[in-house]
Write a structure and sequence with these properties.
- The complex is a heterodimer.
- Chain A is 77% helix and 0% strand.
- Chain A is mostly helical.
- Chain A folds into 2 domains: 2-115; 182-354, MetI-like (MetI-like fold, Orthogonal Bundle), CATH 1.10.3720.
- The radius of gyration of chain A is 29 Å and the shape is extended.
- The mean pLDDT of chain A is 86.
- By secondary structure, chain B is mainly alpha-helical.
- The two termini of chain B are 50 Å apart.
- In chain B, helix 8 crosses helix 12, helix 17 (326-357) runs antiparallel to helix 18 and helix 23 packs antiparallel against helix 26.
- Chain B has helices at residues 17-34, 52-92, 97-102, 104-110, 123-138, 142-150, 156-166, 173-182, 189-195, 199-204, 206-222, 233-246, 254-262, 271-278, 285-293, 301-306, 326-357, 360-375, 378-389, 394-402, 417-440, 445-453, 458-486, 490-495, 503-512, 517-541; strands at residues 309-312, 315-318.
- Chain B is flat, with a radius of gyration of 37 Å.
- In chain B, strand 1 (309-312) and strand 2 (315-318) form a beta hairpin.
- Chain B folds into 4 domains: 17-92, no CATH class; 102-169 and 271-293, no CATH class; 173-265, no CATH class; 326-546, MetI-like (MetI-like fold, Orthogonal Bundle).
- Helices cover 67% and strands 1% of the residues of chain B.
- The chains are: A mainly alpha, B mainly alpha.
Chain lengths: 392, 550
């Protein structure tokens, strides 16, 4: 239906006021920052209305307008706010250049059904702006952490130097601190020692069990499944409390082994879920064919079944790894000072001695999780392709 | 038999013995109908001569066993590392052996005492307490017991500690002096060792025999020899009490008969006065009532505490107003979890809708924005919110820069309920969006168009056609978010301050700071019960098999 809606130029009475309103909104921000909101609104509206009229009547070329507006606003931003104003100005200019012509040429209706009333069109775009705002809400905290981790001061907020984009306001000192501070390095070592072993445990046990669970006739399938999934459902604080009580009874509390066992238990549901999901699409006649050709069950498993379900196993393993790597509640109770992991160190850092090194660690962790997310997504696609569930 | 698929010996990988079983049954029935008395009249046989039915049954059983054998290692692992701890926690929430283990004699002696009479118990109870407290003090157990009973009645802890210091200096050495004066042999540990090996003596001196056993057990645990350690006053006291009570009849030892004849003229010590001198609270019937109320091995006391009630000598009562916090915490936890769930619905619904209705390529791109926070460490996100929300934080700075908020009246957005709700909504939002998205993907867009073409307004079409179809997604997401938020610990701990904390923070406090593990276990059990109930509902609505990740 996209191309069916005819587009035509809108009248001056429509696009000029809309652009002026947007200008007023932008002016409000600039104005309040400079001291007078009202003046900002009026000036913004007037300026944008005049510009909109000018570019549509005089220049009439969108490309030229965009560059022109961007240049104009860059100059204006530089005069008002220095370097950050320059960048903001470039963004504003580019946006308004595009926005004016988008409205003027009626392109905003191109992808909408012809029959929509203006009110519905307005709602359509308002809705998108709302969704955009929610997505911004989702992503902003993570984006804010990254630049702050390069802060040259020991503050948790942007310093004036940072806002001026002054290189002196930025430094790698928090990263340096992370890589040289013994506490952080010990925590990193502990995390790296605990997570892979826990992952290995949950993946090896979990994969076997998932294969057993996906057989056709499994007695007590539901209760078994409920027990195996329960570490994911039970609130962490309760798992932590129970493990603390029980492990101190049997002498595992405060030991490396105890933490590994606890983390392995927490990672198991993720392995079970991902591997069983992969096994749903597994063609059983392949194992039968292998057996038919004389392969014993072990050979069949490693040469036929395993390569096919490997993507699921690996992504289950990654889930288990990230669970252990991120976990703080259980290790807080089951571990002792000798098992202090990275999240534990961050937790104490956030509660007690606040240091922006946490933000540097956070940025590194975000980097790691982006890598893992990419790997899981690629594995999922590969697995779907292998099983012929999606084309390509 | 040619149309039977599996007539040969069953391999381990036989596909579906059950199907074959049905097939065989159908085949046999058909044979019987068509060819009565024919060659296939008997049971259908497998190639090795066993009846096919049995052969197939065996294969089916083997398949089941194989599946179970594959599951067993993990099942045992989870049972040991996870289910056992949970069971241990449930057990601890009612376990109360400390009173009867530390004060065994007192608990028995107190059984006949009426806590409603308003008077402290009689002398024998104090004598029993003297014996118990002596051994408890020797093993340093009395302070633990005092701490335990202090949860129920304040002041008991210091009472036990104070009396524990005094119990060794009671005037009971009067008995020691008088008995050893009768026969110096009494002062020899060897005399006692020999005497206590005789069953007749033990039967004549029951309290002494029990005290002696505890004495030898204590010495053994210390690595000492009972035959070499000096006899303590407490044993002479029990000896005196036994001799008065039984007269030493049946004792094999002449020394006992001699002492029994003499005890009538002994100078006595009133133990209740000794205790009262140590601390006059021992004459308070409330203290004794508390000991009696918590004497059983299992108690509902911790559960009563966690709903702001308490078990008193006079039955179950509400706690004093100023000590009632748990109901408030439970209510707050539930209220805040509901708020978080509602805000997740409010924010998640539009995003899920737009993800489900955009072209796949764009939707996948936007999906990254949802999945990235989902994959990011919880602590990273919590620290991000701490950075954003604090008074010198990013949001306040921006507001001040824009002139919306004055510099000296920065908003307080952290260390309160608002901070917790915002941060946890952000953290749990992906858990709402993902189930909603997967449900909305299955809703046909043609339904909406059909409704509109039938004259429905946008709103009616959404509310009457689209929304009801998306309700399962809302239900799944809401229960998931609610279950997750009700047990959250880290985020409320960091951004919650005092007014934004959950019941889980209180559990952690009782485990690591106040060391009231029983109460922590009881609070945890209640929380677990709520979560299990919700989990059951979730299973009914969505099914645990349908949990998807990413």
């Amino acid at each position: 239906m996209a191309a069916l809606t005819p587009i035509y130029r809108t009248p001056v009475t429509f696009y000029v006021p809309v652009v002026a309103a947007a200008g007023a909104l932008a002016g409000l921000f600039v104005g309040t920052a400079q001291g007078s909101g009202l003046l900002g609104i009026v000036a913004g509206a007037a300026l944008m209305a005049a510009l909109a009229l000018a570019v549509t009547r005089v220049i009439e070329s969108e490309k030229a307008t965009r560059w022109g507006m961007a240049a104009l606003f860059v100059a204006g931003g530089w005069l008002i706010g220095g370097a950050p104003g320059l960048i903001l100005g470039a963004g504003f200019g580019w946006f308004f250049g595009w926005f004016t012509f988008w409205l003027y040429e009626g392109r905003y209706r191109a992808k909408l059904p012809t029959y929509l009333t203006p009110g519905q069109v307005l709602w359509h775009f308002t809705f998108r702006v709302i969704c955009g705002a929610i997505l911004v809400f989702l992503i902003t905290p993570i984006l804010v952490v990254m630049p702050l981790s390069f802060n040259a001061e020991n503050f948790f907020t942007f310093t004036p130097e940072m806002l001026r984009l002054d290189p002196a306001g930025y430094s790698l000192k928090h990263y340096r601190d992370f890589f040289t501070n013994d506490d952080w390095q010990q925590a990193l070592r502990n995390s790296v020692m605990i997570a892979p072993v826990a992952t290995l445990l949950s993946v090896s046990f979990g994969t076997l069990a998932a294969i057993g669970l996906s057989a056709e006739h499994v007695p007590f399938r539901r209760p078994i499944m409920a027990i195996l999934i329960s570490p994911m459902i039970v609130p962490l604080i309760i798992s932590a409390a129970g493990m603390y009580f029980f492990y101190s009874r049997i002498g595992l509390q405060g030991t490396y082994f105890g933490v590994v066992l606890a983390h392995a238990a927490l990672g198991i549901p993720f392995v079970i879920i991902t591997v069983t999901a992969t096994l749903v699409g597994f063609d059983r006649s392949l194992t039968r064919a292998a057996a038919n050709m004389g392969a014993d069950p072990v050979t069949t498993f490693f040469r036929v079944q395993m390569p096919l379900i490997l993507p699921g196993v690996i992504s289950g393993g990654l889930f288990a790894f990230i669970t252990s790597f991120d976990e703080v509640v259980v290790v807080l109770f089951v571990g002792s000072a000798g098992q202090k992991t990275l999240p534990w160190q961050m937790f104490t850092g956030l509660r007690e001695q606040i240091s922006p090194t946490i933000l540097a660690v956070a940025t590194i962790l975000v980097g790691i999780s982006i890598c893992l997310l990419t790997v899981v997504e690629m594995l999922r696609r590969r697995s779907e392709r292998l099983r012929g569930m999606s084309p390509g | 038999m040619s149309d039977l698929k599996s007539t040969g010996p069953q391999t381990a990988d036989a596909p579906t013995p059950e199907d074959a079983l049905h097939e065989a049954a159908a085949y046999a029935a058909r044979e019987q109908v068509h060819a009565p008395g024919g060659p296939a009249d008997g049971p259908v046989l497998a190639a090795d001569g066993t009846p096919l039915k049995r052969s197939l049954n065996r294969a089916l059983r083997r398949q089941k066993m194989r599946a179970l054998a594959l599951i067993a290692p993990l099942l045992i692992f989870v049972l040991l590392t996870f289910i056992a701890p949970i069971a241990d926690m449930l057990f601890r929430s009612v376990e109360n052996q400390i009173v009867s283990e530390t004060l065994p004699e007192t608990v028995v002696a107190l059984a006949d005492w009426d806590s409603e009479a308003g008077a402290p118990p009689a002398e024998p109870v104090f004598a029993a307490l003297y014996v118990d407290l002596f051994f408890a003090e020797a093993q340093k157990l009395h302070t633990r017991l005092g701490t335990r009973l202090n949860y129920e009645k304040t002041g008991v802890s210091s009472l036990f500690r104070k009396t524990g210091r005094r119990v060794g200096r009671f005037d009971t050495d009067t008995y020691t002096d008088q008995i050893t004066a009768l026969d110096p042999g009494w002062a020899e540990p060897a005399t006692w060792v020999a005497m206590m090996q005789n069953n007749g003596n033990r039967a004549a001196l029951p309290l002494t025999a029990r005290a002696w056993d505890r004495w030898t057990a204590y010495l053994a645990s210390e690595g000492d020899d009972p035959a070499k350690e000096d006899i303590e006053d407490v044993l002479f006291t029990t000896l005196y009490l036994d001799l008065v009570a039984t007269g030493g009849s049946g004792a094999a030892d002449a020394r006992i008969a001699q002492a029994a004849a003499a005890v009538g003229g002994f100078e006595t010590v009133t133990l209740s006065e000794q205790f009262a001198a140590a601390d006059k609270d021992w004459l308070d019937p409330e203290v004794w009532g508390t000991i009696k109320a918590f004497a059983p091995n299992y108690t509902a006391g911790y559960f009563l505490n966690s709903v702001d009630m308490q078990k008193t000598p006079h039955g179950i009562e509400a706690r004093p107003e100023n000590q009632q916090i748990y109901m408030m915490l439970f209510k707050r936890t539930i209220f805040m979890s509901i708020m978080i769930t509602l805000s997740c619905i409010l924010l998640g619904y539009p995003v899920a809708w737009i993800l489900a209705n955009l072209p796949t390529r764009t939707a996948n791109l936007l999906m990254i924005l949802v999945l990235l926070p989902f994959w990011t460490s919880l602590l990273v996100r919590t620290s991000a919110w701490k950075v954003m929300l604090q008074q010198q934080g990013v949001i306040n700075d921006t507001l001040v820069w824009l002139g919306i908020v004055a510099d000296d009246s920065r908003l307080v957005m952290i260390n309160n309920q608002f901070g917790t709700i915002v941060a946890m909504t952000h953290i749990l939002l992906p858990f709402m969006i993902l189930p909603l998205y997967s449900v909305m993907q299955t809703i046909q867009p043609t339904y909406l168009r059909a409704a509109k073409s039938l004259g429905a307004t946008n709103w009616t079409a959404f509310w009457r056609v689209y929304f009801p179809q998306s309700v399962p997604g809302i239900g799944a997401g809401s229960i998931l978010v609610f279950i997750l938020s009700i047990g959250y610990y880290i985020t409320p701990e960091i951004v919650g301050g005092t007014t934004g904390t959950f019941i889980s923070n209180r559990i952690a406090y009782h485990i690591s700071s106040s060391l009231n593990w029983g109460l922590a276990a009881a609070l945890g059990s209640i929380l677990l019960a709520v979560v299990m109930l919700l989990y059951w509902v979730y299973d009914k609505i969505v099914g645990i098999d349908n949990v998807k990740l990413g």
